[in-house]
């Protein structure tokens, strides 16, 4: 459903992704792996059109979106749970969730029903400013905000990074549930190989802005991990 | 004394209308718009020209000036400012250029009125708009005569402040604007059409300046450089009040407008302006982010 072919992307004069190829199978979790600084986050930014410049072909549901504006891609069904969560700190929890609604295909701005099921804490504290929440709560809020757009693809950038350990497992299970129960396609950038193996069907490994290895997660060998991912 | 304070309030009201636009463009969008004063001047000329040619009074000129200045603002945003987001100093230079072009264009067309020369379409002599009959005269409070026109100016400024506050905090447009101010990329990723919202916000601020021009034409003569000093004072207000705080802007325009007017009456205008500058410097030294800055994380 999301296919990148020969994609290059730039920040200023820095050429970050080189002739990138990627194909996301609908209804699956696809893990993007790689060491720090290889272009994983840039890949997500590029998919949303947030880098300075991109070329190549990026087809989403049969439409080439490489030259469309970020908000159009969001409205077409691509949502992001970004690195650092990027909550609007002075907006309340409710306002933060409703922000996602600007990308809802019907233009509906409301708190989706699954949020109350997944994150009861958020529903009980709707008027708290987002900036006062803990890291884990902000991560839940960022996921809720992305879900308010009723996305077709969810981009997640290290969703368990910097979160207290007892919440990590809860977030991980939520991600798996979003995929298995609600059929959401997820592109998961992850450093945590164990979780990536548990959750994802396919993987792609990036090195220096190029995909260097990929396939089914069950075929991901320790040898490959050692070669590309160990520090 | 009450009269001086009241006079100060009416000056503060003009300042408020100017500063609200700057609070949006500088505070929320990160643009230094040096042409903001020229938008006020365009509003003032709208009042003069619609009076001469269409027989409009000030009430009818207000919406006309809002639309004309707003449209000019939209053009400036689309053709120039849009290319300069995240380049603060470049916006200053570019919009300063726009200000000079607008000012000289008007001067070429209408600039010679000072010398009593007859200009087709404008007549001769200094221009100002006649104050409508109902706004002339004064009313009495506690034995003091307060001019009705100045009351009207204060009223319009407060109404426009309320409207701006409502748009900012109670509408979808305002939510999108505040989100862009915080994190434009994330706002776009949430589906906000950043370009469109920026154009609307810039144009709205310009429209407010146009309205200020109409009101100002009731006490000052209309001339091509009438807006220049207001843009400086407008920025002082925004910085003093705290960038992107609407109530800060309200409070600071009251404070600075009042200080300026009262000091000008007690001493003189030059000293008043100098004292205001000194006061602002002190405030910024003590509170660099302004009096009403939002809590930072």
Written account of the structure:
Chain A: Keywords: Amino-acid transport, ATP-binding, Nucleotide-binding, Transport. Chain A: This is Urea ABC transporter ATP-binding subunit UrtE. The complex is a heterodimer of chains A (231) and B (297). Chain A starts with a strand and ends with a helix. Chain A has a single domain, classed as 3-Layer(aba) Sandwich (Rossmann fold), CATH 3.40.50. A six-stranded mixed beta sheet of chain A has the order 6-7-8-3-9-10, with helices on both faces. Chain A has a four-stranded antiparallel beta sheet with strand order 2-1-4-5, with helices on one face. Chain A is of the alpha/beta class and 231 residues long. Helix content of chain A is 33%, strand content 27%. Chain A is globular, with a radius of gyration of 17 Å. Chain B has 297 residues and is an all-alpha fold. Chain B has one domain. Helices cover 70% and strands 3% of the residues of chain B. Chain B has eleven helices and two strands. Chain B has a two-stranded antiparallel sheet with strand order 1-2. In chain B, β1 and β2 form a beta hairpin. The longest helix of chain B is centred in the first third of the chain and has 27 residues. The termini of chain B are far apart. The chains are: A alpha/beta (231), B mainly alpha (297). Chains A and B meet through α2 and α3 of A and α6 and α7 of B.
Compact summary:
The complex is a heterodimer of chains A (231) and B (297). With 231 residues, chain A is α/β, with parallel strands linked by helices.
Topology:
The complex is a heterodimer of chains A (231) and B (297).
Chain A (H helix, E strand, L loop, with lengths): L1 E10 L2 E11 L4 E5 L6 H8 L5 E8 L2 E2 L5 H7 L1 E4 L11 H8 L12 H6 L1 H5 L10 H13 L5 E5 L7 H16 L4 E5 L3 H7 L2 E6 L2 E7 L5 H7 L3
Parallel strand pairs in A: 3-8, 3-9, 6-7, 7-8
Antiparallel strand pairs in A: 1-2, 1-4, 4-5, 9-10
Helix pairs in contact in A: 3-6
Chain B lengths: L1 H27 L7 H19 L3 H22 L8 H23 L27 E4 L2 E4 H23 L1 H11 L1 H6 L4 H23 L11 H14 L4 H21 L2 H18 L11
Antiparallel strand pairs in B: 1-2
């Amino acid at each position: 459903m999301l296919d990148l072919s020969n994609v290059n992307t730039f920040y200023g004069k820095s050429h970050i992704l080189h002739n990138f190829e990627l194909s996301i199978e609908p209804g699956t979790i696809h893990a993007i792996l790689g060491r720090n600084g290889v272009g994983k986050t840039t890949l997500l930014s590029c998919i949303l059109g947030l880098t300075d410049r991109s070329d190549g072909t990026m087809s989403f549901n049969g439409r080439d979106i490489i030259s469309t504006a970020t908000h159009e891609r969001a409205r077409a069904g691509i949502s992001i749970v970004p690195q650092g969560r990027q909550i609007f700190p002075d907006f309340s929890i409710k306002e933060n969730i409703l922000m996602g609604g600007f990308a809802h295909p019907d233009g509906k701005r409301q708190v989706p029903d699954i949020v109350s099921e997944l994150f009861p804490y958020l529903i009980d504290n709707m008027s708290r400013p987002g900036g006062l929440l803990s890291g884990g709560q902000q991560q839940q809020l960022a996921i809720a905000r992305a879900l308010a757009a009723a996305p077709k693809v969810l981009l997640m950038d290290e969703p368990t990074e910097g979160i207290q350990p007892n919440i990590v497992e809860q977030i991980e299970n939520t991600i798996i549930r979003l995929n298995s129960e609600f059929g959401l396609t997820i592109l998961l950038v992850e450093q945590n190989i164990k979780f990536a193996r548990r959750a994802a069907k396919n993987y792609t490994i990036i090195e220096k802005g190029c995909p260097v290895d990929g396939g089914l997660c069950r075929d991901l060998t320790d040898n490959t991990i050692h070669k590309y991912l160990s520090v | 004394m009450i009269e001086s304070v009241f006079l100060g309030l009416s000056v503060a009201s003009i300042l408020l209308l100017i500063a609200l636009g700057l609070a949006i463009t500088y505070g929320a969008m990160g643009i230094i718009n040096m042409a903001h004063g020229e938008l006020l001047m365009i509003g003032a000329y709208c009042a003069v020209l619609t009076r001469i040619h269409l027989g409009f009074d000030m009430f009818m000129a207000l919406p006309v000036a809002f639309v004309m200045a707003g449209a000019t603002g939209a053009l400036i945003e689309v053709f120039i400012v849009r290319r300069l987001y995240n380049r603060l100093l470049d916006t200053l230079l570019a919009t300063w250029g726009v200000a000079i072009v607008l000012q000289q264009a008007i001067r070429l067309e209408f600039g010679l009125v000072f010398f009593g020369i007859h200009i087709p379409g404008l007549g001769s002599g200094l221009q100002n708009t006649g104050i409508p009959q109902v706004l002339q005269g004064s009313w009495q409070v506690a034995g003091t005569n307060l001019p009705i026109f100045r009351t009207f100016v204060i009223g319009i400024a407060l109404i426009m402040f309320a409207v701006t506050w409502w748009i900012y905090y109670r509408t979808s447009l305002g939510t999108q604007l505040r989100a862009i101010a915080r994190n434009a990329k994330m706002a776009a990723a949430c589906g906000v059409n950043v370009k469109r919202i920026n154009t609307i916000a810039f144009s709205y601020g310009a429209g407010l300046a146009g309205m200020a021009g109409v009101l100002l034409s009731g006490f000052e003569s209309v001339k091509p450089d009438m807006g220049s000093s207001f843009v400086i004072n407008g920025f002082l207000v925004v910085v003093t009040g705290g960038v992107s705080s609407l109530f800060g802007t309200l409070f600071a325009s009251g404070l600075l407008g009042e200080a300026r007017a009262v000091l000008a009456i007690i001493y003189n205008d030059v000293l008043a302006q100098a004292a205001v500058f000194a006061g602002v410097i002190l405030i910024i030294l003590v509170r660099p982010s302004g009096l009403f800055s939002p809590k930072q994380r």
